[in-house]
């Protein structure tokens, strides 16, 4: 009757899954007590095997979880084929079963078996019971109980499968998170350092090179390194924000905030020597903000205006501050931003229609918006047929930085 169970057999997973269902022992006990049957089991039944997954044996039938019966000797094999329950009160008095080989081989007189179907509709096996004595089984109450328990077991098997899938995805997410952390480290060190070296060298060449060709080449290098540095900065902020707690700030009270903004203008003027940047910074009070982050936002907004505005028109940047708020605006003339584009402009990786040579990752405005939110402020957009204005608005609270 019994065959040794190979622990490397793929069916072991199904046996262990049923073993994990805490309700199964109670189900088998209730079946035996309510029907008078001495043996009850959950069986995995396939085209190849019949394997006991869980057993309650009060008649020393001799099966334990993992044991296998020869498939052709079981009625469960027939149930797998026609997928209908089989209920026998008394084998000897049942014309369809009194000459069947299975009752004679295993010595039972009463038998009930209910198919177990997974949520996918696939046949898993059976919930079955046998006893050497006749028993009254073919009643709506008993058949209904077996059907309910079979559905309950199928539900738990599906839940376990979902849990296993979730745990697998969690492991994959942890591995991905580790790769992201390594990726951030590479960006922060192995890429930014050489970008800085290239930028510094280009600035030296531009300072000492007097001919037009050298100036043009160094301008191209500075433009490229500026864009690369901005891409790295935005990717690091995006990845760090998703892995950690979002944009981090180091707020300070700045007595001369215009210096922070003028530094950005000077940097971009080197990158865009052929363009005109007009500024009006009317800041009459000290401002509380993270200078590096505000410079990052201003660089993103000003860089976008230079990239997408009319080439023969100046880009205008204004800033003002009072006890109520700090407001930074960047304006450029050009085509209006379509309404459908505006709806997604501050979402990550959205780029809309971009000019050739100006392609980015679509993170600049998203990061800028997140920086504004981290300051308790907001980033606004106004665009019409005349031009486009981005406004950074940060409320100013009295007192010291927090």
Describe the structure.
- By secondary structure, the protein is of the alpha+beta class.
- The chain is built from 10 helices and 13 strands.
- The N and C termini lie far apart (76 Å).
- A hairpin with a 3-residue loop joins strand 12 and strand 13.
- It has a 6-stranded antiparallel beta sheet with strand order 3-2-1-6-5-4. It has a 5-stranded mixed beta sheet with strand order 8-10-11-13-12, covered by helices on one side.
- Helices cover 46% and strands 20% of the residues.
- Helix 2 packs antiparallel against helix 5 (140-208), helix 7 packs parallel to helix 8 and helix 8 runs antiparallel to helix 10 (364-374).
- The longest helix is centred in the middle third of the chain and has 69 residues, at 140-208.
- The protein has 2 domains: 12-166, GAF domain (Beta-Lactamase), CATH 3.30.450; 247-402, 2-Layer Sandwich (Heat Shock Protein 90), CATH 3.30.565.10.
Taken from the alpha-carbon principal axes, the silhouette is rod-shaped
Oligomeric category: single chain
Q: What's the main sheet like?
A: 6 strands, antiparallel
Distance between the termini: 76 Å
List the helices and strands and how they pair.
Layout: H1 12-20, H2 24-35, E1 39-45, E2 50-57, E3 68-69, H3 75-82, E4 86-88, H4 101-106, E5 110-117, E6 123-131, H5 140-208, H6 212-243, E7 252-254, H7 257-271, E8 277-283, E9 287-289, H8 291-308, E10 315-321, E11 325-333, H9 339-342, H10 364-374, E12 378-383, E13 387-395
């Amino acid at each position: 009757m019994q065959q040794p169970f190979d622990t490397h057999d793929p069916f072991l997973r199904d046996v262990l899954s049923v073993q994990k269902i805490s309700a199964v022992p109670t189900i088998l006990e209730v079946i035996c007590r309510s029907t008078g049957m001495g043996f009850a089991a959950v069986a995995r039944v396939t085209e190849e095997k019949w394997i006991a997954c869980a057993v309650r044996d009060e008649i020393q039938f001799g099966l334990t979880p993992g044991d296998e019966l020869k498939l052709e000797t079981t009625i469960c094999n027939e149930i797998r084929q026609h997928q209908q329950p089989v209920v026998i009160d008394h084998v000897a008095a049942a014309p369809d079963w009194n000459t069947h080989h299975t009752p004679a081989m295993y010595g039972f007189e009463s038998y009930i078996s209910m198919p177990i179907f997974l949520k996918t509709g696939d046949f898993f096996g059976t919930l079955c019971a046998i006893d050497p004595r006749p028993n009254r089984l073919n009643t709506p109450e008993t058949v209904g109980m077996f059907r309910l328990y079979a559905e309950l077991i199928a539900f738990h098997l599906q839940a376990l499968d979902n849990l296993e899938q979730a745990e697998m995805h969690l492991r994959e997410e942890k591995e991905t998170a580790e790769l992201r952390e390594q990726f951030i480290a590479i960006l922060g060190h192995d890429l930014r350092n050489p970008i800085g070296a290239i930028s510094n060298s280009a600035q030296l060449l531009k300072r000492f090179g007097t001919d037009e060709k050298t100036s043009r080449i160094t301008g191209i290098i500075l433009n490229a390194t500026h864009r690369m540095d901005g891409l790295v900065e935005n990717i690091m902020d995006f990845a760090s924000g998703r892995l950690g707690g979002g944009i981090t700030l180091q707020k300070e009270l700045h007595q001369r905030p215009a210096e922070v903004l003028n530094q950005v203008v000077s940097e971009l003027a080197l990158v865009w020597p052929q363009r005109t940047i007009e500024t009006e910074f009317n800041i009459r009070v000290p401002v509380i903000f993270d200078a590096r982050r505000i410079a990052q936002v201003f660089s993103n907004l000003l860089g976008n205006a230079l990239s997408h505005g009319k080439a023969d028109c100046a880009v205008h940047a204004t800033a003002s501050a009072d006890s109520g708020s700090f407001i930074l605006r960047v304006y450029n003339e050009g085509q209006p931003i379509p309404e459908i584009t505006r709806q997604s402009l501050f979402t990550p990786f959205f780029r809309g229609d971009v000019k050739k040579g100006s392609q980015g990752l679509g993170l600049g405005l998203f990061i800028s918006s997140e920086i504004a939110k981290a300051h308790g402020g907001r980033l606004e957009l106004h665009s019409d047929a005349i031009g486009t204005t981005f406004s950074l608005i940060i409320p100013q609270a009295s007192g010291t930085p927090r």
